[in-house]
Amino acid sequence: MTELNTEKYLISLLKSTINNEAAPPLPEDMDCTALLKLAKHHSVANTAYYALEQLDVLSTEQKKEWSQLRDMEIMRDIHQQTEYDILCEAFSQEKIRFLPLKGILIKSLYPQSDFRTMSDIDLLIDEANAEKVKEVMLSLGYEVDSMEFGVHDVYHKKPAVSIEVHRELFGDEGQEFAPLFSDPWSKCEKRSDTLYEFTQQYFFAYLLAHGIKHYQQGGTGIRTFMDIEIYRRHFGQQLDMDKLYDMFEKAGQRKLCEDFIRLSELWFGAAEDDGTLDNIARYIISGGTYGTFENQVQYELQSKSKGQYIMSKLFPNLQHMKQQYPVLKKAPVLLPVMWLVRLVTKPFINRKENAEKLKALSKNK
């Protein structure tokens, strides 16, 4: 069984699950160990198992491993939904307006919410409320994983609930989309005094923009394309596709936007494969849920030389540096000083990440 056939079979299992269809027969030469490894790589093992268990073809040990993954996701889904309700109430009491993003809302559109896994709950707040939010999160039993690093603060509550509180929708990555969402609150409908949700048009636009951002940073997984297909099934009639493509034209990403939608139709809808998306599909499959450094380097070297790539990593632009060193927001003149600080400290932090980036760069000669 080739890798390509394993990929195709996994996607066919996922399609069966979300479409409530009979599972496709297991190919005789299928390597179920490789199938599980790929499904875990894309955080969709639990979803695939709903179809695979119909066939009764797994050994006792294989069934145990697949079913444990599914049961864990069911429990995590319950915990996440419960914590989200608690957060909504707490933010309402403290008069903190917030905008839930991506997974926590799109979950409800799947036939079962646990079909759509997510590692954390993403929310957007006003930056001025960041400290107030911190107080609320600590009062609810969360610990601070990171604060004022990048464009979001990360909180965690044991055993397995993480919250990403975004102060901006896009940091250095995905800056081409920032003008489209410069005032995200104006693209929303109010659900309560404090709870906002994107209009259907802008929810879909953000879903695509977020996926493309990750695609450029090393990859975005199969799950993104399930989301796209699921959302279009529910709200396709209300979406103005011409307006959507115009938005992405302005961001310089219309082609990728169109390709993402076509690939979602190919994998989970009724579109027929003409081979034109093979390269994108391979890149996505290889990257897993969150992409790889090798893919990121490969993507960036399409538009710059290796020397330019290295310089961009040694001396990031001001927008990127502001995310790591908040002092630059008030004193951008200190950029050269913070470059020096970064050069001195960077080799001693994120060592594993740095090693993986160097290894990826060495492969792209």
Order of helices and strands: HHHHEHEHEEEEEHHHHHHHHHHH
Spatial arrangement of strands, main beta sheet: 1-2-5-4-3
**Average pLDDT, all residues:** 86
Radius of gyration equals: 21 Å
Detail the poorly predicted runs.
none
* DSSP, total strands: 7
CA-CA gap between termini: 31 Å
Strand content: 5-15%
* Major pleated sheet: 5 strands, mixed
Query: Count of helical segments?
Result: 17
Shape: globular
Q: Helix- and strand-based class?
A: alpha+beta
Helix content: 55-70%
What do these coordinates show?
This protein is α+β, with helices and mostly antiparallel strands and 365 residues long. Among the domains are: 58 residues, no CATH class; 54 residues, no CATH class. It has a 5-stranded mixed beta sheet. The protein has a two-stranded antiparallel sheet with strand order 6-7.
